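Sat 14:20. Reprocessing the chain from the morning session after the first attempt stalled halfway. Input below, unchanged.
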Amino acid sequence: MLHAALPSPLCAQAVVQPLSAVAMSGAQDSLTSTDSQAQPLEIEIDNEAEKEFTLIRVEGRGQGDALLAALSSGLQQFGVNVNSAAQQSEDGMVLNVFKVTTTEGEKVPKDKWDGLRDLVQNMASTTKVSNQPAIYGQLAAADVMRLKGQSTRWACIAVRARAAAGDAVALELAAAEMAQAAAVFVALEKEMDKLRAKGADGGVIALKDTSRQEAAAVLERKMAAMEACLAARRVIALPEAPKTAAEMMAEQMKAAVTAPPAVTSTGPAAGNGYEILLQAFNWESHKRSWYKDMVPKVADWAKQGFSAIWLPPPSDSVSPQGYLPRDLYQLDSCYGSEAELRELIQVCHNHNIKVIADIVVNHRCATYQGEGGKWNKFGGRLAWDNSAICNNNPAWSGRGAHKTGDDYPAAPNIDHTQERIQNDIIEWLRFLKNSIGFDGWRYDFVRGYGGQFVKIYTDATVPEMAFGEYWDTCEYTDGVLNYNQDAHRQRTVNWVDATGGTNAAFDFTTKGILQEALGRNELWRLVDAQGRPPGFVGMWPSRAITFIDNHDTGSTLNHWPFPNNHLQEGYAYILTHPGTPCVFYDHLYQEGGMRECILDLLAVRKRHGLDCRAKVQVRKAAADVYAATINDKIAVKIGRGDWSPNSARIEAPGGKQWVRACNGKDWACWEIGN
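Finished this time. Tokens:
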């Protein structure tokens, strides 16, 4: 076999189907395959030669440089990150060497090796590997010859992109990758046409159509990457030329005669704009005397820069976590007694920290069984009967109006259209604020009832902060998050609009895009087609509560967890960008540099007075690096790629220099030096 030092890395591309993180295997394996013309092909997979990577060696005769690009793409579609690829030739033998990892950055476990070998064989076994590489099935010879030239150019561009990391080169690479994906897709379309013309078996056509759909999905993603690359270039502003006196006068006259835009009703929403929120619990917090345990931590939270904390639902509940409330006025819960809750709130106020209550009023569990043995009679101070329950779910025999939102099947859904129910809820909220001391509301499951009712409750109680959990499903195609999430974030905008702008909302769009971008090494996702942040924060930053994880998505539930190996990069993003950031308790107290990362970034945000409306300018959005400047005061980059404001020649105000403020694994933050 040939053994040669690897040249510069080819490229690190995105992943379509991620591998699960499994323990690393320290072994190697190989087999020899023979193609249709008896050309030997040796495939070796090795976990011992490199400390951080799995090596895949593919050796055979007659291989051209098109195979290097084709195999790189094919391996990425299998679900591994291709960190580098290289090709060596000697006496007609060609060796392709790939350094790969799982999406979690680990070596590929041995139980995945058979699949890797099958992939390589399927791409190379039908003919000489240089003539008919098959990324998604065998390509027509004429199309491959055309693709071969493109692939050679693609490989050269990739090497230059890694070496130079220039914006123009990154754009050229995105265009080349899109062209290659288009060639693959078109070739498969032609093959299907030929199969139909020959009257091929339906099963064969169906199998080929599956490959065609996969190729279409890859092409869509490459087109999205190209769109994002163009968007990032659009927002890189050149220094403005000085305006003439006539131009300035024209602008002033235009401003004087232009009617002001319609103003959305204002309300507490995200507070004063400079709030930094801590979710001060997780899914397991009920197992301890939580209120008592939190009291000694409050002083530290204040020093760290938190201005508000969000506590779990305070009322008696069927479930210990509090999300199936029963007697709303009974505040002795699994988290502690009412007296302990009052003490915690008072200590927070002594340190100028607001306290936000988790308000669960979409549904309520009954205390007694009613007619037919159904649980629809409520106890305690709010002794409602089934007339308070929406009538759409027969399980509760509700006699109220029909649901104004999504049904929550685990408990009776409350009819918010009734004035008496509204008044009861308002009275309870006033009790929480005026008697217990809560400063604001986090409304749970607001998809269950109309935003107009949230406005009623917020207007009547005048909290200092108010925001809702509008958790909607992002847009996916074949299990891969779509680049364009405008429809998803627009639904959040619509809900906030329904509250009259009195409430903010958790930015689930940003969470979904950010974790997909980092997990797949597709950081081009972090800019929309208009050059803005792609989440809800890009549309309405003053109403966006940005976050990485919460008690539902992370903790022990793990319904939609952020990739653990990218948490630091996630916080580097939300703690420097507009919106109101919310830090999860688990992450603040996580070891391994996580806590230090959060505290360093909090200090930067506070030091430079970044608020929810901070101006963000995307400087670069490529596969392996995202960079932006915020308020022209700080610069941040996330991802494995190289970038700094100095190397990018971004002029610092006042002729000063950019200096590094803090950094960690695959992220860094700069500020203006003195």
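The longest strand covers residues 81-90.
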